């Protein structure tokens, strides 16, 4: 940081350190684990001078990062969307040991859900993706324990109420897979509430026995194998916002981002 760096809010400073998203930074601040020049600060909007102020989170000094990185990760089932776990269950950190930079997940997929998960050290980017106002579509394939009627699926498009509020599918259709006893359903949502897809199908009387996220915006999981990750190019990052025409500002910001790898087609294993 240069000597003439302009002051920024404390939560944005933390997000720019690569530690977490801005929303998570707000949680750290509210929990009282953030200090500014030795004093606990509980107001996210507190101004920080990057050139001279010292910020600590959990007693560790943090500084804005100089290189921002972005990855697509195919999360397997039985893995926590977390960097650590006190019960020592598998986490995504077990799969990213070869990534040079410390990254964190954008949003989450629950323990029994697999598929596309974004990893980054860019807190502002994570905030853009996760904030409800972004309305970025996420597409899932859900295997059900039965065969819902067209009327039942239509109900999910009209909207249902779950814990956390009113939600709906912006698109839903039967997938090409299936059998005489169960259906695979393709569902697209924008809200991203906790276990939302599972709870939506429960509202019409069905349990999800397998769930996989296959795309975020127009960025698709493709042939990326379970447990693998790959760096994202600027063009791939733009696909996340492709179906959201209201996010011109986000697209402009994405255009300026750079990835860490010269070989954009390389894949890495644990």
Structural write-up:
- The chain has 270 residues and is of the alpha+beta class.
- The protein has three domains: 8-62, Structural Genomics Hypothetical 15.5 Kd Protein In mrcA-pckA Intergenic Region, Chain A; 70-133 and 219-255, 2-Layer Sandwich (Alpha-Beta Plaits), CATH 3.30.70; 137-216, Alpha-Beta Plaits, CATH 3.30.70.1560.
- It is built from seven helices and 17 strands.
- It has helices at residues 10-15, 22-30, 123-130, 150-158, 196-203, 234-240, 248-255, and strands spanning 8-9, 34-36, 39-40, 47-48, 55-57, 60-62, 70-75, 104-106, 113-120, 138-144, 160-162, 165-167, 171-178, 183-189, 208-216, 219-220, 229-231.
- The protein is elongated, with a radius of gyration of 20 Å.
- The relative contact order is 0.15.
Give me the secondary-structure topology:
Blueprint (H helix, E strand, L loop, with lengths): L7 E2 H6 L6 H9 L3 E3 L2 E2 L6 E2 L6 E3 L2 E3 L7 E6 L28 E3 L6 E8 L2 H8 L7 E7 L5 H9 L1 E3 L2 E3 L3 E8 L4 E7 L6 H8 L4 E9 L2 E2 L8 E3 L2 H7 L7 H8 L15
Parallel strand pairs: 9-15
Antiparallel strand pairs: 1-4, 2-3, 2-5, 5-6, 7-9, 7-17, 8-9, 10-14, 10-15, 11-12, 13-14, 15-16
For this entry, give a set of tags.
alpha+beta; Structural Genomics Hypothetical 15.5 Kd Protein In mrcA-pckA Intergenic Region, Chain A; 3 domains; Alpha-Beta Plaits; 7 helices; 270 residues; 9-stranded mixed sheet; 4-stranded antiparallel sheet
> Can you count the beta strands?
17
Radius of gyration: 20 Å
Instruction: Supply the number of structural domains.
Output: 3
Overall pLDDT score: 87
CATH level-two architecture of the largest domain: 2-Layer Sandwich
Give the helices and strands as they follow along the chain. Answer: EHHEEEEEEEEHEHEEEEHEEEHH
The CATH homologous superfamily of the largest domain: Pseudouridine synthase I, catalytic domain, N-terminal subdomain
Helix count, per DSSP?
7
Q: Into which percent range does the helicity of residues fall?
A: 10-25%
Beta fraction of the residues?
A: 25-35%
* Residue windows where pLDDT falls under 50 for at least 5 positions: 244-267
Label the structural class. Answer: alpha+beta
**What is the CATH T-level topology of the largest domain?**
Alpha-Beta Plaits
- Main sheet attributes: strand count, strand direction, barrel closure: 9 strands, mixed
Given the C-alpha coordinates, what overall shape results? elongated
CATH class value of the largest domain:
Alpha Beta
Distance between the termini: 34 Å
């Amino acid at each position: 940081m240069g000597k003439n760096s302009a002051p920024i809010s404390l939560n944005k400073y933390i997000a720019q350190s690569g530690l977490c998203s801005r929303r998570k930074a707000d949680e750290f601040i509210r929990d009282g684990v953030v200090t500014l020049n030795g004093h606990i600060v509980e107001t996210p909007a507190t101004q920080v001078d990057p050139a001279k102020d010292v910020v600590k989170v959990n007693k560790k000094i943090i500084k804005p990062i100089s290189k921002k990185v972005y990855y697509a990760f195919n999360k397997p089932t039985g893995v926590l969307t977390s960097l650590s776990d006190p019960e020592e269950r598998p986490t995504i950190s077990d799969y990213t040991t070869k990534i040079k930079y410390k990254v964190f997940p954008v949003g989450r997929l629950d323990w029994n859900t697999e598929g596309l998960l974004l990893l980054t050290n860019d807190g502002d980017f994570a905030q853009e993706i996760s904030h409800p106002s972004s309305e970025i579509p996420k597409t899932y394939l859900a295997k059900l324990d039965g065969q819902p009627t067209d009327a039942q699926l239509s109900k999910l498009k009209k909207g249902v109420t779950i814990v956390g509020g009113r939600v709906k599918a912006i698109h839903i259709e039967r997938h090409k897979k299936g059998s005489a006893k169960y259906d695979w359903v393709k569902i697209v949502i924008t809200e991203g509430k906790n276990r939302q897809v599972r709870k939506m199908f429960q509202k019409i009387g069905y349990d999800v026995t397998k769930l996989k996220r296959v795309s975020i915006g127009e960025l698709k999981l493709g042939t990326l194998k379970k447990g693998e990750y790959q760096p994202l190019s600027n063009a791939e990052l733009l696909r996340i916002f492709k179906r959201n025409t209201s996010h011109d500002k986000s697209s402009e910001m994405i255009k300026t981002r750079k990835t860490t790898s010269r070989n954009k087609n390389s894949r890495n294993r644990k």
